[in-house]
Amino acid sequence: MLQQEYTITVYTENQIGLLNRIAIIFSRRKINVESLNTSPSEIDSVHRFNIVITETEEVVRKLCRQIEKQVDVLKAYYNNNEEIVWQELALYKVSTDVIATEVKVERLLSQYGARVVVIRKDYTVFSVTGHREETDRLIQVLEPYGLIEFVRSARVAIIKSSEGFHRKLTQFEYREPASDVVENEFLNQQEKVFSM
């Protein structure tokens, strides 16, 4: 089977240690994670992971099933690049003197849609959002002018055809509402109940 780039989208509860457990799933299979982003989602108290890997579809499908076995994971989806809308943010640090003296650099930056973030005497920082190929091209353009530093964010992605996980979760809650939380009667008696 052909390997290609996939974005795995995982909806989770925000629990300590979950990122480590998900990372172990990839490291056991010797799969390199190219990009990892975690953030709050549109649902209160639910977080969203975007994980980018290059693998076969069969391997990605198995990974999603394995990730969904984690207690704190609500749902995992996988999509190729044609099935999602995605962007990355890149920051470029260039000498302010070069920007001031080289009119070409200023034209190039406007051509690539760069936006000024910080201007100092010694350097200027620009930001660009786009696909990896777009941000990489600007690196090549700026290198002859003394690119000081470069950093790119992880991928953020939205699934094109999805109705959204929020709607599915709401429908589930409507069909099977959560019962009221009952306090554990033994919670305050830890030493008596759990003694050796």
Query: In DSSP terms, counting alpha (H) and pi (I) runs of 4 or more, how many helices?
Result: 7
Low-confidence stretches: none
Beta content? 35-45%
Overall number of domains = 2
Shape: elongated
Describe it:
The chain has 196 residues and is an alpha+beta fold. It folds into two domains: 80 residues, Alpha-Beta Plaits (2-Layer Sandwich), CATH 3.30.70.260; 68 residues, ACT-like. Chain A, domain 2 (Alpha-Beta Plaits, 2-Layer Sandwich). The chain is 33% helix and 35% strand. The protein contains seven helices and nine strands. The strands form two sheets. Strands 5, 6, 7, 8 and 9 form a five-stranded antiparallel beta sheet that branches. It has a four-stranded antiparallel beta sheet with strand order 2-3-1-4, covered by helices on one side. Strand 6 and strand 7 form a beta hairpin. The protein starts with a strand and ends with a helix.
Summarize the structure.
This protein is 33% helix and 35% strand. It has 196 residues and is an alpha+beta fold.
